[in-house]
């Protein structure tokens, strides 16, 4: 199919970007997003507690580290509102560039924050402030990346185009995990705790520079150009969203919960449990995770294709039901502690993450009209993060301490049930117009 022609507000004809450039521009930001979030998640599981909260017990250190991990998720809806407002009023492209810059600056600075032993209580305070800033910037990232992809997509291919932002977690995870794995192999434990864990944060600046270069060369999306040409931007998109579109926003957020829960149970909590309780070395468990995430990478295009072929709802219903059943496997597989059982658990959960996550790249933008789409999709995604990810490692740690891994598995199944009910309450969106 030939590329469509985009008409801007000055009536000049501009040839649409090549599909490969659109795909890469929408992919690169979410890859950096999950790279940034996962390097912090890994650091939280391994070193943040002892370095920034040394005055409390080991258990309290882990809980404090996971609490700082959750801060960014609470900042994301605020960022979604602010960036969504400008994305719906001023355009997708400019807003995406701004969110990427803020995200990258905060992530890089986290790698420079001195520890508690150097500056005392100011260390965890600075860490929390930068973590909030990181989440604030990330709040504007995913919604804009998804819109960049699906608003350029040809008819019947929005699920496939919307897949490219959803590939970001797998690739970002592999890069982040690969870096930590390499550091674990080449550094002593003392070197890693002293300075090695900071390296992935500092390297984020390079990834952000690449992302900015690509995004600055992408034209505005056709849907926003049409909206702008009609002068149909809203003064306060959030008010319109809350007045007329609160239900799909809430249901979209609840549908997202299972994605986040599967991902962070399999990565953050399982990593912490594997190292602290099963006595895996860091590099050994990270190697298992690198293998498992390939299943997520493979599931993503499969699920995206199926969502175009059969619809978003059927794929998500099947994914949520399977995720619910997977909760019953957590205790016997992870608790067994063998390489085979742990690898099987990680691969299963991350495969199901890919199945449930891929259709969201198209579903959430399709829930909203163009005038509130950036705000609506971004807020649904971010609220899903609060509900499904921000407290997941913390809750899992508490549940395991009080009732064992069976309770953690029940938590996964409960979240999957909530997402299943939410998807059942949504109508199919694949045939909706995005104009």
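-> sequence recovered:
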């Amino acid at each position: 199919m030939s590329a469509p022609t985009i008409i801007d507000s000055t009536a000049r004809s501009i040839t649409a970007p090549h599909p490969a450039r659109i795909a890469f521009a929408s992919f690169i930001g979410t890859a950096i997003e999950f790279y940034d979030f996962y390097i912090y998640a890994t650091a939280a599981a391994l070193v943040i507690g002892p370095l920034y909260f040394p005055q409390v017990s080991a258990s309290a250190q882990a809980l404090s580290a996971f609490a700082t991990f959750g801060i960014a998720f609470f900042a994301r809806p605020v960022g979604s509102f602010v960036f969504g407002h400008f994305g719906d009023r001023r355009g997708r492209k400019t807003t995406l560039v701004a969110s990427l810059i803020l995200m990258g600056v905060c992530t890089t600075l986290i790698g420079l924050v001195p520890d508690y032993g150097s500056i005392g209580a100011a260390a965890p305070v600075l860490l929390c402030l930068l973590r909030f800033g990181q989440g604030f910037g990330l709040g504007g990232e995913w919604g804009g990346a998804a819109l960049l992809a699906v608003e350029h997509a040809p008819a019947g291919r929005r699920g496939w185009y919307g897949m490219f932002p959803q590939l970001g977690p797998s690739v970002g995870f592999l890069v982040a995990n690969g870096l930590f794995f390499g550091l674990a192999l080449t550094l002593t434990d003392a070197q890693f705790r002293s300075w090695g864990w900071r390296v992935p944060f500092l390297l984020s600046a390079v990834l952000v520079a690449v992302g900015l270069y690509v995004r600055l060369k992408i034209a505005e999306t056709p849907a926003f150009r049409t909206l702008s040409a009609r002068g149909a931007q809203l003064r306060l998109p959030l008010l319109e969203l809350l007045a007329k579109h609160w239900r799909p926003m809430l249901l979209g957020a609840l549908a997202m919960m299972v994605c986040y829960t599967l991902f962070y149970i399999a990565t953050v909590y399982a990593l912490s449990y594997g190292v602290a309780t099963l006595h895996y070395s860091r590099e050994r468990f990270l190697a298992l995770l690198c293998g498992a995430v390939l299943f997520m990478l493979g599931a993503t295009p499969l699920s995206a294709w199926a969502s175009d072929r059969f619809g978003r709802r059927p794929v998500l219903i099947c994914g949520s039901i399977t995720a619910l059943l997977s909760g019953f496997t957590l205790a016997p597989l992870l608790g067994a502690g063998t390489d085979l059982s742990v690898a099987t658990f990680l691969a299963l959960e991350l495969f199901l993450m890919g199945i449930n996550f891929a259709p969201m790249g198209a579903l959430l933008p399709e829930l909203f009209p163009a005038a509130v789409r950036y705000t609506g999709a971004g807020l649904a995604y971010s609220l899903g993060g609060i509900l499904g990810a921000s407290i997941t490692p913390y809750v899992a740690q508490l549940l395991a301490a009080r009732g064992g891994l069976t309770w953690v598995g029940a938590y996964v199944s409960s979240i999957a049930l909530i997402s299943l009910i939410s998807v059942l309450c949504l109508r199919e969106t694949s045939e909706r117009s995005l104009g």
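The domain at 18-425 is CATH 1.20.1250.20 (Growth Hormone; Chain: A;).
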